[in-house]
């Protein structure tokens, strides 16, 4: 007898193409080591808090990825907030294509998420503004000025679980791409 798949909190992540992914992963790893914080995969969270069966999320994510070509996302400055998951991040400038992807994601997933704050976190944690400013200065030149997004990934992740417990489940190439990180 097979047990039904458990429904958990899932997210959809936009994943940079390989070269940017590796460069950003190195920045994230370096900052995590320096500050004793968790390391994580570089991503732009498209939508979080999905409580559907994994199979249904993957089916809708596959459909979504097939509708969009890779996105070139200009990055803005490195900024910080007092939030644990937005401790230090690379701001992503919201292009019309990115906003169209977000609107289609909300439609496909029947999501009520009222807003979208595109960013790529570089450091998670509760750190002082002074420490964050120093970290931003240190890695400023290592972050790309634009990021090409080549895949959409389904991740089992929740702010209620430690970062180390998050699981990357399935990646879908955006239309026209052949490889992802």
Q: Secondary structure elements and their pairing?
A:
Layout lengths: L9 E7 L1 H18 L8 E7 L3 H14 L3 E9 L8 E5 L3 H14 L9 E5 L5 H11 L6 E11 L10 E7 L8
Antiparallel strand pairs: 1-2, 1-6, 3-4, 3-6, 4-5, 6-7
Helix pairs in contact: 2-3
How is this structure best described in words?
The protein is of the alpha+beta class and 181 residues long. It has one domain (10-173): Cyclic phosphodiesterase (Cyclic Phosphodiesterase, Chain: A, Alpha-Beta Complex). It is built from 4 helices and 7 strands. Strands 1, 2, 3, 4, 5, 6 and 7 form a 7-stranded antiparallel beta sheet that branches. It is globular. It starts with 9 loop residues before the first strand and ends in an 8-residue tail after the last strand. Mean pLDDT is 89; it is low at 1-7.
Q: What is the total tally of β strands? A: 7
User: Distance between termini?
Assistant: 36 Å
Q: Return Rg in Å.
A: 16 Å
Domain count, please report it: 1
CATH architecture: Alpha-Beta Complex
Strand proportion: 25-35%
State the order of secondary-structure elements, H for helix, E for strand.
Answer: EHEHEEHEHEE
- C-alpha geometry: globular
